[in-house]
## 1
Amino acid sequence: MPNKITLPKITVQASPDVAFIKYWGKKNEIERIPENGSISMILSGLHTTTTVEFSEKLSNDKIIINGKTADKETKRVTEHLDRIRNLARVTFKARVVSENNFPESTGLSSSSSGFAALTIAATLALALDLSEPELSILARQASGSACRCVCGGIVEWIRGETSSNSYAQTIFPADYWDLRDIVVVINSEKKKISSTAGHITARSSIFFETRQKNIQDKIEKMKKIIAKKDFASFGELLENECLEFHSILFTSQPPLIMWQAETLALFKEVMDMRNNGLPAYVTINTGHNVHIITLPKYQKDVMEKIKELNFVKKILLTKIGGKPVILDEHLF
Ligand code: PMV
């Protein structure tokens, strides 16, 4: 009897990102084509490490996330593996082992790095030779923000009209601007509402149409400010976008209130720091943890002030990160 086929085992490490201009709402739910473009920075030092191995010996996909057999994520991962198997015209099942080095489901976007790493590892394991835009399009279908995390540096996701032109690309390399993101974990509790569910209700906010009318101008403005490295203007626009985004969440039906009391307390603390001459600005995703963006020369002082707050559980210091890396290719 012939030996059963096992393909190479590939390990890829990808970082999550934080959006300066947020993706919120989908024009096409199934293809995950967004209502608007977005801009983000990849977060160096935080990562998901994913190993994928396809084998004829497996009767089902086996998915292990952070040491445990995944239950609620299994369907989404298997559906993504199916997209990749269809492209490669194979039916082999896969073993996927994935680990995050940061708390998940707390607004730190583990799905962005997770599906970016899975897309690259699985396509390589099946010897598919895809370009970066092709990888981005594929990752987008599993998790919108993952399409940005196959790239490095500061990234723009161009909305696009159809699946084949909705993808992300690097607009500034990782070393272009030494921005620091101080990620403040106030609580490692998992959030109760997923982004996937929130995108669906985005249109129910009375502010949504106004946001859509202005968002492309905001994206262009953000790109110009980054090009000039004008930190004060960057920070003002970053916070304005964060508050606009959460206003959409607050006024959606049902309302989505992701913040906890400590989220607001920290936001105000950062505003106070600024009033006292310490430039730092806030952005918050669909979670309660807070990203504080500052420059290297202010980082130490900002961190000292935050450490004094008794509700702060953890501080993760990051800067702009690069593209995903292939850690290992085990050929046998
Ligand atoms: O990719 P998703 O479905 O997890 O949505 C991400 C939504 C935000 O993080 C709030 C914004 C963004 O652009 O990352």
## 2
Amino acid sequence: MGEKFTHLRNGEYVLNITVDSKLDPISLMVNRVKSDQRRHVLDLSIGFYQSEDQRHTGFSVLDDSKVDSACNGVTFSILGIEKYRDAVKKLITPKETISHNVSTVQTIGASGGLWLAFLILKREAGAKRVWFSDPTWGNHLEIAKSTGLGIERYNYDINKDGTLNFNAIKESLICLKPNDILVLQGCCHNPCGVDLTLEQWSEIAILAKSRSVYIVIDFAYFGLSRSFDEDKAILTPLLDILDNLFVVNSFSKSLGLYGERLGSLTFFSRSELEVNSFENFAKNIVRSTYSMPPQQLATQVADVITNPDAFRKWVGEISVVRDTLNSRKEALISALVSRGIDGLITNTKSNGMFLNLALSAEEVEALAVKFGVYILGNGRLSLAGLQKRDINKLANAICEIKL
Ligand code: LMR
């Protein structure tokens, strides 16, 4: 709060919303879009998927299950109801992971999972610093700061041919220290859309182990790069090498539940004792903050994961979302190329919800002011909100500010 409490007077609360708010860049942009009164605003700032035409989340499998999965009564479950925890554990765990003990706890979205992992590692494992890619999701740094951890960054550069500059990552990780936390995005890197290969995951695991570093995988886009099985294959090389691993996921993107904050933190460890301690630490933190997570929707999502018909329907729906994102990307790239603009999109081989446009801050601003087209200040464009019918309008606007 920029103004502290200087506006709080005798029984009269005057809350000033100041422009120097400490909100993350995505929240600030969302507020700005909301205040634009023009009729034809194109909001490409945030990763909320909208299907073509109906502007639907793309997922209706949950509607079918609502009647059957009413949550019968309340149970006292600080770490989330068993049914949900077991279902998510099954969804996330690679089949061949037999040497690790596994525990999944329900969290308030993936953000809440990161927050919980950071607090546990800070309080119980001596962690002082957390490493994020540069660039990364706009709110990562704020979540880590709120736990009192120091922030470090590693390079995450995309080569001209659209691949990841893995050497740059390794070079910047030379400064890892024991007990540091290394956050890596499991798939559909936000904002780059370019991920590590299985060999690179092994190299990272070897590096982390040699430095006694904790790895936390942010799997917010699990299932949106390829199938669930293919996406979770990255955990196998990690678990082959590491003694323990934290994995965070949510159903915001993979099931269109952004507003419901349903997520989880899964902990893998070779030591059963360590898993028991993890659960106890998690219980203490959850009980002393928000007491316990909500149960109704967790029951429904557990049913979608465990009921074969519902699961099949979900797999079908998520593959439509993936294909739609991909075809929006291809259509935008060819619209730009046909207008004589190429080289503007650096991550042509990306997957997931975002494309990066090599635009200056002034050009991004011109898109907003002249055309009501909103992307993030760093050039990140969300394909999630881009309808095919708006692609020509977008390409024309980019053309005008570029040529
Ligand atoms: C995004 O990056 O747009 C999404 O993760 C939504 C959010 O909460 O920022």
## 3
Amino acid sequence: MEKRMKALVTGATSGFGKAIAENLAKNNYDLILCGRRTARLEELANALSLGYNIHCQTLSFDVRDKTAVESASKSVSIGELDVLINNAGLAVGLSTIDKGEIDDWERMLDTNVKGLLYVSRFFLPSLKRGGQVINIGSIAGKEVYPGGNVYCASKHAVDALSKAMRIELLERDIKVSQICPGMAETEFSLVRFKGDEARANSVYKGIDALMAVDIAEAVDFILSRPKHVCINDLIIMPSAQASAAISKRRSE
Ligand code: NDP
Ligand code: 8X3
């Protein structure tokens, strides 16, 4: 019997990570699903393992907790990974630097930069030769917009770390890709505005934002390239968003 590929996805409880996991399951990957919300992880793992007859494992940990990340990486059942998807991340707040909440800055830097590093440090040793890393960056890692300051800095760091990984993992024949989406309708804005639904919904008013499945399809594309082709970097925007700060909205 042909051995199935195995992928680990962080941030699988919602948004991009969940859609990526669903597509990988359809494509017959075994999965390790990570996130903090254990009930959601287990519900998804059950649905995917039953629906697609794959093996689905859950690892519930906070990417900011390096001890928890390290001990998750030592679970005996991890085995060898073919794909690591560093997706977990968030924005908190939209204040200017002179009025910013320092706790918000720390949450973003601890999650998006240090969390991605902890996951990479402890799970990359399990990634097999010829494997693949996909980091979810952002248009905020290519440009800066008013109020984006620390979030943009954290995603610029993801851009730099993706380049660093590509250089350092070349020796192990591991391909490293980054996907940089523009505005996408997930739980992202609800988290950014700390549960304020009206404010979160207003971000997507009058615009056809990206959907999580658009990013999951980009992951499928990257993973289905032949061995000699690496998609280094993909910027994917809604058609109505020309840059991080400039969009065309319908009047509603
Ligand atoms: P969601 O809020 O829908 O999903 C975020 C995921 O990250 C959740 O599964 C959440 O899981 C996980 N996560 C957040 N913090 C932690 C943590 N401390 N430890 C473990 N897991 C964590 O947002 P998106 O799907 O939109 O975001 C996914 C990625 O895409 C992020 O890196 C984001 O920055 C990036 N992005 C988003 C864009 C957008 O407009 N939506 C555009 C460009 C990039 P849980 O809460 O269960 O831990
Ligand atoms: C999320 C996209 O434009 O809100 O990374 O920064 S944006």
